[in-house]
Amino acid sequence: MGLRNGIFTVPKQNLSFTIIAATATRRIVTSFENIHSFHPMNTTAPPALPPGCRLVDTHCHLDMAEYQADLAEVIAAANRCGVTKIITIGIDLASSRRAVELAAEHEGVYAAVGIHPHDAGTADDEVFRQLRELGAAPKVVGFGEIGLDYAKNYSAQEAQLPVFIRQLELAKELRLPLIIHDRDAHEDCLRLLREKGPFPCGGVMHCFTGDSELAEQVLELGFYLSIPGIVTFPKAESLREVVRGLPLDRLLLETDGPFLAPVPFRGRCCRPEHILHTAAAVAALHGVSLAEIADQTSRNAEKLFALPA
């Protein structure tokens, strides 16, 4: 997917750059990205959503220290920008418990619970007992962030595998969609998802930065792909190429805040409202409006996580 024959206008500050699509569409897109470092809105002000539109940040860590000085304002600022729902993610028992508490305390905030592969070594029977209880709490809409991480190996691979398997089984028992972390572990991650599936409540590959082959395999599982702010980074052309070809009805958006802030906030704390910059980038890649991307990805999130529309 990319530019179609016709006119494609991209705003930049108060100017408009109009590109006439021709047979050399790919060259035009590449030229645009090289010149403008691929930030459709070259300003720190978030792109404005049209009235009636909303966005869902499907993956944020609201419990983390970067947000605690002004958490209520972080959530309020997101709401003012049209980010009406945020899923705050557990990575260990303490953050999972805090996610459940935050969901109870704030309208529009929902929770996911799980043990990140970095913490697989801590996941004993008591942890699983408490996870089962937390997973049944009100406003818990997903199980994760779980998976495999062979890049850091903070937990040994032989510890990660059984914990991942056990969490896949628990998620199925609790009837919660999966939120999968896969870093340099594609073969094992996909193999276990196939072996332990199907998963009636589905799932999402969080913070997707893989190639088209991996994307196809994830889609074949019936899962969604969640696009982070990395898609705005100047050197992320390979990810942009993949995103261009993905079906819109299988895309989610996320911040992974406080990490991975999109351009023009790269290197700073990523806040939920920054997802508008990611949405604008995806819209530009597909040659559609920000409103269309917001509507489609929000409906996708509401469907996967059983969120109120």
General description of the model:
The protein has 309 residues and is an alpha/beta fold. It has two domains: 1-36, no CATH class; 49-304, Metal-dependent hydrolases (TIM Barrel). The protein has ten helices and ten strands. The strands form two sheets. An eight-stranded parallel sheet has the order 3-4-5-6-7-8-9-10. A two-stranded antiparallel sheet has the order 1-2. β6 (140-149), α5 (157-174) and β7 (178-183) form a beta-alpha-beta unit. α3 (93-105) runs parallel beside α4 and α5 packs parallel to α6. The longest helix has 18 residues, at 157-174. The radius of gyration is 19 Å and the shape is globular. The model is unreliable at 1-41 (pLDDT under 50).
Task: Give the helix/strand layout.
Blueprint: E1 6-12, E2 15-21, H1 25-36, E3 55-60, H2 71-80, E4 83-89, H3 93-105, E5 109-113, H4 125-135, E6 140-149, H5 157-174, E7 178-183, H6 186-196, E8 203-205, H7 212-220, E9 224-227, H8 237-244, E10 251-253, H9 275-286, H10 290-304
Parallel strand pairs: 3-4, 4-5, 5-6, 6-7, 7-8, 8-9, 9-10
Antiparallel strand pairs: 1-2
Helix pairs in contact: 3-4, 5-6, 9-10
What are the main properties of this structure?
disordered N terminus, alpha/beta, eight-stranded parallel sheet, 309 residues, TIM Barrel, 10 strands
- In CATH terms, the superfamily of the largest domain is Metal-dependent hydrolases
In angstroms, what is the radius of gyration? 19 Å
Beta-strand segment tally:
10
The quaternary structure here is: single chain
Strand content: 15-25%
CATH architecture of the largest domain: Alpha-Beta Barrel
Question: Count the helices. How many?
Answer: 10
Spatial strand arrangement across the major sheet:
3-4-5-6-7-8-9-10
* SSE arrangement, N to C: EEHEHEHEHEHEHEHEHEHH
Structural class: alpha/beta
- Kindly state the percentage of residues in helix: 25-40%
What is the overall silhouette?
globular
Largest sheet: 8 strands, parallel
Averaged pLDDT: 88
Unreliably modeled segments: 1-41
